[in-house]
UniProtKB/TrEMBL annotation:
This is Acetate--CoA ligase. Residues 73-467 form the AMP-dependent synthetase/ligase domain. Keywords: Acetylation, ATP-binding, Ligase, Nucleotide-binding. Its EC number is 6.2.1.1. The lineage of its organism: Bacteria, Pseudomonadati, Bacteroidota, Chitinophagia, Chitinophagales.
Amino acid sequence: MAYPYQIKTQADYEKAYKKSVEDPEGFWSAIADTFYWRKKWDKVLEWDFSGPDAPQVKWFQGARLNITENCLDRHLDTRGDQPAIIWEPNDPDEHHRVLTYKQLHQKVCIFSNALKNNGVKKGDRVCIYMGMVPELAIAVLACARIGAIHSVVFGGFSAKSIADRILDASADFVITCDGAYRGNKVIPLKSVVDDALVQCPDVKKVIVLTRTHTPVSMIKGRDVWWEDEIKKVETLGNPPCPAEEMDAEDTLYVLYTSGSTGKPKGVVHTTAGYMIYTAYTFVNVFNYQPGEVYFCTADIGWVTGHSYIVYGPLAAGAVSVMFEGVPTWPNAGRLWEIVDKHKVNTIYTAPTAIRSLMAHGLGFVEDKDLSSLRVLGSVGEPINEEAWHWFDEHIGKKRCPIVDTWWQTETGGILISPIATVTHTKPSYATLPLPGIQPAIMDEKGQEIPAPQKGEQVSGNLCIRFPWPGMLRSTWGDHERCRKTYFDAYPGKYFTGDGCLRDGDDGYYRITGRVDDVLNVSGHRIGTAEVENAINMHADVVESAVVGYPHDIKGQGVYAFVITEKEPDNPNLARKDILETVARIIGPIAKPDKIQFVKGLPKTRSGKIMRRILRKIAEGEMENLGDTTTLLDPGVVDDIKQGKL
Ligand code: PRX
């Protein structure tokens, strides 16, 4: 079955884009018609980006459906025996696993029944903290099947981060593993959950999957084994698990992400619009053809895994490869070995992975057969030209289009990206908005900058002026926070937090990076305020300021300026203590790359830290610090400059 909405030519794209702007309801309802509904909608779209309760966004109001019937059941007759998930383990010597649509459907139904037996009901929040095993996808889909709201927490977050998320979402259930394999490490997930749950007495059940045989403490009455719960369902003869009928706007999941304040927010995605948007963008951006093997290297703990390992590909009936390990273990050829082994047609990865593999040389690439590849994708951060060309030449052998996909946790799916085989690509440009996406570039005064003429470029802050089906609907438990964060800066528009440049010659967009206090470290989104709060928890620390700086592999590194009670006797040990504190409070992913002890921070008379100056110092730009006369004590800057790492 081909996809009726697949864009095959530039003319198709232009026609689809025009229709999506002139008649968005007609455009999206024609696509939605190709999905399976228990009941169709009464109204396609109702929205408000500027009122006091903004955002109010409802797609496909009145429709009834279950996303798993679209991701699983409806494929059973047409491609029941086709692989849905090919799972590649961390250890290349362990056998890979293939789950066909029939098998995945069956496993999801069984685990759905196990969840129900454990008291999980529609609307309940379920925190999932697992490694990249097929059961993670099964757990996510089982929640969706019974109408429970999943909140997946990436395996690199600390016990405290898990506890904060469980408490914020009032999750009563947790699904985890004894441990997870990542490269040569074993991460004791259950033990981290146990530490988290000391702060979460309301959690009723923890379901634990065996993966690593790491010793765990199972608490009576609270903790149960995944395998035992499955057996209980199986001894009942695997009763069917009819999917719960959901409203189009029922919450599908909550996913926590960092912003410019200290506390991560739970981004809320709902059911129908998200499903249609992820499937539509998956099929079009990657020019996916039925039966092709698609491999996204992300972790399901991040939005990329939600939208483009699980929901988008499965809604499109694709073959989705899921990888447990890391690109550099046992060696830097692992991703290419997977491409070779499973005859992957599309690989979707992050610039940080490409840069780190580049650094290991071509030896790990040249002995692999990459001839199955047809499309390459990049996501998570700006891709620098060097990495783009390496990907193009050495992986795509100059015959595979690279889609540089720009989007965010909040957007649910890709917004600006080339369409593979259709859009002419240009290194470091995400190129053009997908159908349905209406970008606006804003200046500092809040005015929209007109489209650039030929030979001209404009830059400013990137907003989106019209709703799209996959967008966030709220932030969990605090709708006003959603309005303030995304709809206040530019009234009537969604503000992305990213800066962008547009080239008048081709109308292409280039994303230049965050304009707020959010860092993008190895494609992981980290709030500077969050890291500062964590550093400040250390007993010896008085105050700190965290900024990003350009890092060859990670894209951005974390640079922390720290004031301590007294000068540390052993600065190296003091640095390690601070790193340990950050790992405890947030997780190892947020550990600063550099810590500089300082006596003072550059502050204005009103007490605001001038991060602009710290950013320049961290970047090594000592000369051009701009105006420092408004500082309370300009001498501080010289001290910091002298001590620069
Ligand atoms: O700054 C942009 C950057 O990643 C941010 C979103 O991060 P997160 O919510 O974690 O989602 C990442 C995966 C979708 C954006 O605000 N970003 C993402 N993709 C690109 C990008 N920057 C430049 N080019 C991209 N292709």
